[in-house]
Amino acid sequence: YGKNTIKFLRLHREGKKHFVKEVEVCTHLRLTSAQEYLDGDNSLVIPTDTMKNIVLVLAKKNGIPTLEQFAIDICKHFMTSFCQVAYVKTYVQEVPWQRLHENGVPHIHGFICVPDGIRFCEAEQCRNGPLVVFAGIKDLKLMKTTQSGFTGFYKDEHTTLPERHDRILCGELFCKWSYGECRDFDFDSIWNKIRECILEAFSGPPDCGEYSPSYQKTVNCIQMLILSKVSQVQVIEVILNNTFYNVVDMKNLGLTNDKEVLVPVEAPYGSCACTLARKKFLEA
Question: Where does 5-hydroxyisourate bind (predicted)?
Answer without folding.
Answer: 48-49, 150, 167, 216, 242
